[in-house]
């Protein structure tokens, strides 16, 4: 956003109305601009075709790695060690391109790499993180199962001891980047509680099957992971962590990126609708001159600016180590819900043109349906917040 007053009217910028840009440091703006340029040059000219054909180039990993966007907020092991706000801004720009591209970076950096960085042994960190930061190796994160999505505590995938080895059996479902990953982070029940494992994709007994016929997040690989007597050495297990806090700690990171990313998708929809309203004529006038269109645009503007401020606020809290997982739930719930509303409203302004891939709006709208569901559904985040304010857990 170029937060300058309009030259002719002196009005605030029609997108960054609150001049949120002025709250960013020079370095943060540089990261934002770098990613914005990449998305403009590389993603936007191609993404409608990727979406239509249901694929995403694997090489994107190396490109994102070169830009320092994989494991961007992690320290050491070849990771850039950027601030939470810089990482959030990158997510915002990537998702202004497509939620599938942001998901690619989120799953790699915030789920797979974060899991290894936070819970892995020194050997696991040295083996995987430098290559993953460069995008030479890709990771995925297997928590959800066919019968256990919102309630991962019930997972059936089981890791059995056999001498000093582990033998894993079970199925993971809806796993982003599953079919293109070199290493899968798999969470499994064991006699010792839930454990995490680094499963190289070439391991005997490991298979990834692509899920087809998605109408959302089409520019993203989504897979089923099947583990059939998949034998791993002791060194494949995360040494210390036990229980659901292992995977849930990783989700906090990816959910944080979504707080920003969803506002990127919303911004793309709002800008498209605003531009369209200023040029499309009906009844001899621009449709942007009609009061109902203006009301729609203003409501979009309010939520876009409020949501972006919220993302920045939670980002600053995270950089000061003050962000609680409940703050992340607050941001994920609000911003994805509002982004989806903005996308749907933008779609109406485009009329019939709004249903084609010639414009980005319906692609974002369909993508945001997945974003509303993954990383904790809107209902799950509502209940997390409900428990926080009432002290009563309503999950079971
Ligand atoms: P509960 O009893 O509350 O907690 C179990 C243990 O976990 C700890 N914990 C957390 N730790 C870190 N961060 C959090 N946000 C945490 N929430 C809870 C908790 O302290 C406890 O630790 P301990 O040591 O005492 O055992 O767990 P519960 O079974 O009641 O479940 C709570 C619930 C429903 C909130 C949780 O299961 C949940 O979040 N469900 C949603 C599942 C989900 O979000 N799955 C996402 C899968 S990954 C994905 O979707 C990737 S999409 C691609 C992309 O990101 O782009
Ligand atoms: P369910 O849990 O069956 O929920 C169905 C409905 O019931 C929802 O509306 C839900 O909110 C509601 N519900 C459930 N429990 C309650 C309750 N207690 N109170 C009120 N309502 C409730 N998972 C991974 O592990 N790794 C990935 O990389 C990954 N990538 C994904 C990519 C895509 C494109 C998608 C769509 C999903 C992905 N997921 C991934 C899975 C995602 O995290 C789950 O879909 C999500 O957690 C919800 O689980 P579910 O689909 O089984 O829905």
Describe the protein in words:
This protein is α+β, with helices and mostly antiparallel strands and 396 residues long. It has three domains: 3-133, Butyryl-Coa Dehydrogenase, subunit A, domain 1, CATH 1.10.540.10; 139-236, Butyryl-CoA Dehydrogenase, subunit A, domain 2 (Beta Barrel); 245-390, Up-down Bundle (Butyryl-CoA Dehydrogenase, subunit A, domain 3). The chain has eleven helices and eleven strands. It has helices at residues 26-43, 47-53, 60-66, 84-97, 99-119, 122-134, 245-277, 291-319, 325-349, 361-373, 378-390, and strands at 75-76, 79-80, 139-142, 158-162, 165-176, 183-188, 195-200, 206-210, 222-232, 281-282, 285-286. A hairpin with a 6-residue loop joins strand 6 and strand 7 (195-200). The chain is globular and about 80 Å long. The mean pLDDT is 97. The structure holds 3-thiaglutaryl-CoA and flavin-adenine dinucleotide. Flavin-adenine dinucleotide (FAD) is lined by residues 107, 141-144, 149-150, 174-176, 217, 222, 370, 373-374, 377, 379-380, 383, 395.
SSE layout:
Layout: H1 26-43, H2 47-53, H3 60-66, E1 75-76, E2 79-80, H4 84-97, H5 99-119, H6 122-134, E3 139-142, E4 158-162, E5 165-176, E6 183-188, E7 195-200, E8 206-210, E9 222-232, H7 245-277, E10 281-282, E11 285-286, H8 291-319, H9 325-349, H10 361-373, H11 378-390
Parallel strand pairs: 3-6
Antiparallel strand pairs: 1-2, 4-5, 5-9, 6-7, 8-9, 10-11
Flavin-adenine dinucleotide binds next to strand 3, strand 5, helix 10 and helix 11.
């Amino acid at each position: 956003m170029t937060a300058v007053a309009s030259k002719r009217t002196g009005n605030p910028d029609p997108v960054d109305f609150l001049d949120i840009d002025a709250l960013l440091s020079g370095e943060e703006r540089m990261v934002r601009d770098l990613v914005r340029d990449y998305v403009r040059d590389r993603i936007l000219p191609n993404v409608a075709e990727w979406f239509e054909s249901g694929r995403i180039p694997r090489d994107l990993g190396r490109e994102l790695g070169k830009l320092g966007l994989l494991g961007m907020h992690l320290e050491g092991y070849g990771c850039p060690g950027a601030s939470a706000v810089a990482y959030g801004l990158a997510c915002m720009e990537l998702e202004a391109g497509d939620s599938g591209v942001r998901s690619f970076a989120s799953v790699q950096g915030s789920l797979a790499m974060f899991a290894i960085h936070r819970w892995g042994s020194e050997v696991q960190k040295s083996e995987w993180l430098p290559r993953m930061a460069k995008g030479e190796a890709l990771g995925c994160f297997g928590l959800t199962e066919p019968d256990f999505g919102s309630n991962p505590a019930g997972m059936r995938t089981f890791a059995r001891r056999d001498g000093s080895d582990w033998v894993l059996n079970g199925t993971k479902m809806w796993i982003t980047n599953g079919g293109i990953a070199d290493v899968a982070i798999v969470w499994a029940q064991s006699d010792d509680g839930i454990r995490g494992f680094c499963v190289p994709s070439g391991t005997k007994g490991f298979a990834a099957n692509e899920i087809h016929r998605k109408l959302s997040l089409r520019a993203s690989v989504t897979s089923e992971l099947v583990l059939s007597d998949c034998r791993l050495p002791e060194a494949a297990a995360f040494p210390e962590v036990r229980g659901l806090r292992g995977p849930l700690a990783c989700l906090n990171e990816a959910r944080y990126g979504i707080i920003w990313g969803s506002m990127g998708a919303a911004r793309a929809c709002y800008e498209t609708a605003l531009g369209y309203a200023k040029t499309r004529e009906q009844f001899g006038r621009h449709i942007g001159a009609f009061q109902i269109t203006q009301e729609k645009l203003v409501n979009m503007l309010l939520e876009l600016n409020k949501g972006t401020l919220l993302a920045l606020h939670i980002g600053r809290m995270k950089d000061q180590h003050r962000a609680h997982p409940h703050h992340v739930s607050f941001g994920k719930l609000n911003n994805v819900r509002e982004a989806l509303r903005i996308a749907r409203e933008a779609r109406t302004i485009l009329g019939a043109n709004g249903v084609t891939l010639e414009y980005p709006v319906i692609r974002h709208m369909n993508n945001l349906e997945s974003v509303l569901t993954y990383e904790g559904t809107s209902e799950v985040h509502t209940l997390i917040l409900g428990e926080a304010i009432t002290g009563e857990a309503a999950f079971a």
